[in-house]
Protein 1
Amino acid sequence: MTRALNRCYNIAKLRERAAKRLPAPMFHYIDGAAGDEWTMRQNTGAFDRWELVPRFLVDVSEIDLSTTVFGQTISMPLFCAPTAMSRLFHHEGEYAVAHAAERARTMYSLSSISTVSIEEAAEATSGPKLFQVYVFKDRGLNREFIARCKASGYDALALTVDVPVAGNRERDLVTGMTIPPRLTLASLWSFAMHPRWVWNYYTHPPIELASVKDRIKGDVTTLVSFFNDELDRTVSWDDAAWMIEEWGGPFAIKGVLSVEDAVRAAEVGASAVIISNHGGRQLDTAPAPIEVLPEIVEAVGDRMEIILEGGVRRGVHVLKALALGATACSMGRPYLFGLGAGGEAGVDRALEILRTDIERDMRLVGCRNVGEVTPSRIRRVER
C-alpha cells in the first residue's frame, strides 16, 4: 500500500484522493446523487440524531467482530454492496473489489451491470458472494441469471426494487458522463488533466456490461438511458416470489424503505431486506435508512435479516445500526472512493479504515462482540 494511501486516515480523505485522480465525469458519478442531493447528505447526517451510550469496566482485550449474513460468516458486520461499472473508476474494477473483500473476509456483491461477468467474478474470489439482480424487459434474463449464479457458486441473490425509472442525476449531465466515456466539451479538459486514467482506459479491454452484453440490443450511452430503456417497470411482488422460489437460497429485497414493503418481503419468502435509498440516487427527499430502521426491525426483525445500506462512513455508524437492530451494514461509495484513489490497494485501505474504526469503537462502547451491541447502547438525540 502506498504512503499516500496510508495517509488517508478516513473515508473522507480517500474521497479527496479519488477526486484528484479521476476525471470529473467518473468522480462525480460516484459522488453525486439525484436532484438537490438532500437524501444523500441525510444518509450520513441522520446518524448524528443518535448517540452511543458506553459502558465501562468491561474486559475488552479481545474483540470479535464476526457475524453471519445470508448463511455466511464474515469477519465484520460490514460488506461490499453492489455497484455498477467499477472499471470506470480504475482499470482493475470489480476484480480489485472482489480480491480486497476476500482478504478482509467479508462479502462481495456483484451488480447486474458490472464490467466483469457472473462467472469471471466467481472465479476471482473464493469468499462469500452475492449477486444483485435487476428485472430486465427480457424476462428470460432472470432465469438465466439464477442458473448462472447457481452454477458459479454464489451464496445469495438480492433483487433491487427501487429503479422503476432512473433518478434525476444532474451532475452526470453537467460533467458529460457517458458510457463508454467520450470526449465532449464538458469533459475534454478533465480527461486531459488525468493522463494516467486515460492511458489505463485505452490500454485495457473495452468496458462492457459483461453479464448482459449478449442480450442487450443497441448502445448504452448513459446509465440513465440504460435503466429507462432496459428495466421492466411492470415487475411486481409475484415476480419477486417467483425468483425467491427459483433461487431456493438466501434472498434479499434491496431498496426497502417502508414497513409495508418489509412485511410484504417477508410474506413472499425473502430471507432479508436491505434498507436502502440507492445512495440518494433515486428519489430525492426519501428517508435515510437509519431513520426507518427501528420501525422495520420492530415489524419484521424476528423473521428476517435486516441490512442497512446508506451513509456509512465511520465505525460508529455501523454500531448505531447494530444497536437499532440491523444484522449488518453494507456500503458502496467508501470502497469506490478507495478504488478511485488507488485501485485494489485503495479498496484494501477503505476496508481497513472501517474495520479498525469498528473495532476501536466496540472497545470504547464496551462491547466484546456484535451480539452485545444492543438497544441499551443507543439513545435518540432530541434537539
Protein 2
Amino acid sequence: MLKDLIKNLKPSSTLMINETSKQMEDQGKKIFKFGFGQSPFTVPQDIVEELKKNAYQNKYLSMQGLSELREAIAKYISKKKNYEYNSDNVIIGPGSKELMFLLHVIFDGEIILPAPSWVSYAPQAILGRNKIQILQTKRENNWFPSGQEIEKIIVKDEKKNYLLFLNSPNNPSGQVCEKLDEISNVAKKYNLIILSDEIYSELTFRENYKSISNFCPEKTIISNGLSKWCGAGGWRLGYFIIPETLSEINKMINVLASETFSAVSAPIQYAAIKAYENDHVKFIRKSKNILSAVGKYVYSNLKSNKVLINEPQGGFYLMPEFLNNKFKTSAEMCNSILKDTGVALLPGSDFGFNANKMLARLSFTDFDGEEFMRQIEDNQKIDDLMINKFAPKIVQGTDKLKKWSESI
C-alpha cells in the first residue's frame, strides 16, 4: 500500500525533538530545549502591523509570488551581493524547505552533501530519486569541504550533473565557510550547480558576510526567507533567487509550484514586503548581539578536555563532541543526556556524521528573546550576569551538560 521509498523515511528529527520535549514537559519534567532550532525573537512590530492590515487579502496570487514582494527582495539582495537580480529571478515559496524539495524533484544527477548538513536535505534527495554523495568534513576546516574534496567526487564521472548544498552559517555547526573562492573555482571548472542555503546569513556574527553567491553568482541558487532573522518560522515564507543562467530550473520550479502549493498565503506575502523595504538594521544587530553573547557563554563554559567545540560564528547552534567510550552511537548518548539531565540535544548522526562519532547539535535558543531584547540597549555589551538573568535555562542547561560530561 505504501511505497518502499516512503516507508523507510522517518519524521524530521528537528521537529520530533520539539514534540518529545513538549511531551516530557507535560509530564512535569524540566526540559532544557537545546534540540529544536527556532528563533527566540518575535517578528518586528511593523511587519506584524502590515499583516493585520492585509488580513482581508483573499485572492490567489501569482504562483511565482507577489510581484511587489519579489521586486523588494531582488532590490534588497542585489544591494547586498553587488550583483543585479530582478524580480523574475525570485520565486516565493511556503518556506524555503518546500522550494528545496521541488529542486530535488526536478534535478537529474547527484547531490553532494557535506556532513554535517541540515536533516532534510538527504531525505528530500531520496524522494527526488537522486543519488547522494556524503562528504565528511573536519573541525579544523569549520566543518566545510575544501574545493579539492569536492573536485575528487566530480572527476570520478564528469559527465554527470552535480548539485552541491552549501549552508553557511551552518546548521548544525554554527560555523561559516571560508573556502568560498576555491569552491567557486571548482563550480566554474565543472559546471557544478550550488544551492546556497543562506537562511542564517543575517545572523552572522562577523560583519561583511560573504557567501558562495558572491564568488560565482551565475552557478548559485540562493535560498533564504523570514524564519530565522525575522523570527517568523511559523509564517512559512521563503524564497529562491535563481540567476538567468539557470532559467530552466526557474521555469520548472514554477511548473511544480502550480501543481503543489499553488501560491503562498496572500496576507503573509503582503506583510513580507515591509520586511525587505523597511529598515530592520537595529533589530538584526540586537539579535546578533544577544545570540553571539549567549553562544559564546555556552562555548566558554562547555569546552574542556572532554568536550571539543568550535566557537560559534553565526545563527544559534554549536556542535560539541563528547570524548567518551561509554556509548556506541551519538543517538544513544543523546538519549542518555536527556534522561540524566533533561537537556535535549540532537545526535550528529541525524546530520550525516558516522553514528560512532559522539557529536551533537546544541541550539542555544531556550530563552525569552523578546524580553532580552527589550532590556538591552543597542550595541550594549552583554555580560554573564545579564545572561544569567535573561537566559537562565541556558545557564542551567549548560551547567548540567558540563557536569554530565565530567562524570562519564
Protein 3
Amino acid sequence: MFTGLVEGMGVVRRIESTGGSGGSWDRRIEVEPLFEVEVLSIGESISIDGVCLTVVSWNGTVFRADVSTETLSRSTLGDRKPGDLVNLERALKVGDRLGGHLVMGHVDCVGVFKKRLEEGRSLRLFFEIPDRFSRYVVEKGSVAVNGVSLTVNGCSGNRFDVNIIPHTAMVTNIGLLKPGDRVNIETDIIGKYVERILLAWKREDNRSSAEGKSVITEDFLKLHGFLK
C-alpha cells in the first residue's frame, strides 16, 4: 500500500523480455533511483509510475522488478524505454503519516494527458480516461496519476482536471507530460468497494422483494449503526 506521495524519480536503465507463453511476453525492468536509497530488500513492494511491483534484486544503485503480462496490458510500463524517468515510492510503513490517500498500486486503466493551463504558480492538467472508469472520479475526490496522489478539481464525462504545485512538477514526471502522453490511472479504492457493496444489497433487495420480504430488518439497522 502507498500514499501517492512520490519520493523521487528514477531513470530506467534496462528493460528485457523474460519470455512468456501463448505469444505473451513478461518483462524485467531495471531502475536507478535518483534520490538516496539506503537499502531495498528483496521481496519488498515499490511503486513505479503508480504500479506496485516487487523488488527482485538490488545492488546498491539499481534495482530490478518483474512486470507481468497483465500489468503490461493495464499500464504504461510496456511503453517505457531506457532513459525514461519514472516516479518511485516505497511501500507505506505502519505508523507513517498518510499525507496523500490510500493508493494500492493496482492501476485501473491508462489515461491520456490532454492539455495544461498555467494558473498563477500552479498548473492545471487535463486528462481523459476510458468511459467505464469515469464514475469513480468525483470532484474533490482523490485520484493517482502515475502514482501521484492528486485532488480532482473538476470532472465532466470521461475527463477530469487537477492542479499541481511547482514542487510536484519538479520532483515527479507529471511536470514533464506532453499532450498525448499516456499515464497510469488508479481511482479511489473506497468508491469501488462502496459500489460493490451497494450492488450486492440491490441484488438482495430485488430477490427479497420478489419473495415479498424486505431486507430492512431490525438486525440490519443495528448492524449498520442505525439502532443500538
Protein 4
Amino acid sequence: MNARDIAGYVKSGKLLAAETTKKTLENIHAKDSEIGAFLETFEESAMRKACQIDSKFKKGEKLGKLAGVPVAIKDNILYGSHRMTCASKTLKNYISPYTATAVQKLLDEDAVIVGRTNMDEFAMGSSTENSAFQITRNPYDKNRVPGGSSGGSAAAVAAGMVPLSLGSDTGGSVRQPAAFCGVYGLKPTYGSVSRYGLAAFASSMEQIGPFAGDIEDLKLIFSVISGRDEKDSTSLPAEKQVSPALRQIKIGVPTDKIFQDVSGEIMKAFEETLDKIKREKISVKEISLESIKFSVPAYYIIASSEASSNLARYDGTRYGFEAEGKKAFSSYSQSRGEGFSSEVKRRILLGTYALSAGYYEEYYLTAKKVKHLVRADFGKAFQEVDIILTPTTPTAAFKLGEKTNDPLSMYLSDVFTAGQSLAGICALNAPVKTGNLPCGVQFSASHFKENLLFDIVKKIWR
C-alpha cells in the first residue's frame, strides 16, 4: 500500500496503526538480510507510537496526514534517544539527544519511524559501500549498488519495506540512489526543509529530502517536512507556489555537450521521456548551461572544504571514537585515523588543502566563484523555460566494487546533480525502466517550485 492509502485506512478505522507497524517490521526482517538497507529497526518506539495513534482514534481525536505510515530515516538524521552513527565507527555509540525538526514534523502528523537506514559514511559516497558497518545492495540486482549516499533509504522504498523514507542530498545523494533503485526522490530548494538535526557535512548545500514509491506520496511527505524553522537560520518560509498551466510550461534541454558520456540505455530512457512530453503538447526548447561542466570539481572542492571544518569536532575528545594514545596529539591522530574510513579521510585532506594558506584563493575561492556562475546560468535559463530536463545519472547502477578503487569515476556519478546543489534549486528524480535495471530522469526547477515539479511529473507519468 502507498502512504496515502495507509493513512486513509487508519483514519477511517479500517486498519490499526499497530497492525501496520507490526507487519512492516516483520517485512523488514524478512527481506533486509539480502539487501542491507537498515542498520537498525526501532521496534519498541515504533510500536509505542502506533499504539498511541490507535488510542487517539478510539478517543475520537483528529489524526495527522501520515497516520500510521511507516517511515525510515537515514542514519545522519537525529531521532531523540535513538542511535545515530552516520554509518561511521567514530559515532558507533552515539545516542541522539534531540529530534531533528523534519522527523518531529513526521511524528506530529502521526507517522511511525521504524528504523535508521544505511549510508555512505558521513554522506560521502555514491554507492553505500563506504559504510563502516555493511554494504547495501540494489533490490533489482543484488550484485549492484543502490547508489549513495542515501542508498539504504532508497533501497528500503524500492524493496517495498516502507512506503516513505528520508535521506539527505548534498550533491545528488537522494536523486542518484532514487534513479538506481527506481523510485521517486526529491532534493528540495535549499532552505525549504530545516537542517536542524541533520549531521553536518557540507552545510551550504545539503538538504533533507524524501523518497517515495509514487509522486503523490512524495508530494505528501514534502508538504509535511517543509517550512520555516526557528532552529535553522538558513530555513525559509514556504512560498505560495502558483504553477503555470501545464500547457504553457516550457521544458529546457541543455545542449553544451552534457550528454557525451551518457550510456546508451540512459539516453534511450531520456529520449523516451522527451517523446512523452511532446505527446502532451508541452513545449521543449534547447538551452545553454555553459558553466555546468565545472560543477563537479567546484562541488567537490566546496563540499570537501566544508567537511574539513565540520568534521574537525570528531577528535575523540569532544565527540566520537577515542583511541588510546600516550600523548594528546597521538591520541587525536590515532582517533581520527582509526575512526574515519579512507573516503572520509580523503575528503578531509582535500578540503584542508583547499583551505590552506597559499591555496585558498586558487582552489576554494575559485570554486565559490564557479558556484555563483552556475547559479547565474540556471537563473538565466529559468528566464526562458520553467523546467530543465536531464538524465539523473550517466549510467544505471554499477556493480558492487566496480568503482571503489577509482574515486574520480565515482565522483562523476554526480555530473547531472551537482549543479543544482550549487545553485540551491529543487530537482526531482522520476524513475524510468530500461531493460532489467531502472534509471531516472531529472526535472529541475527554480527556487521553491517543487509543486511545479510534482505537477509536470504527474501529467507525464499518469
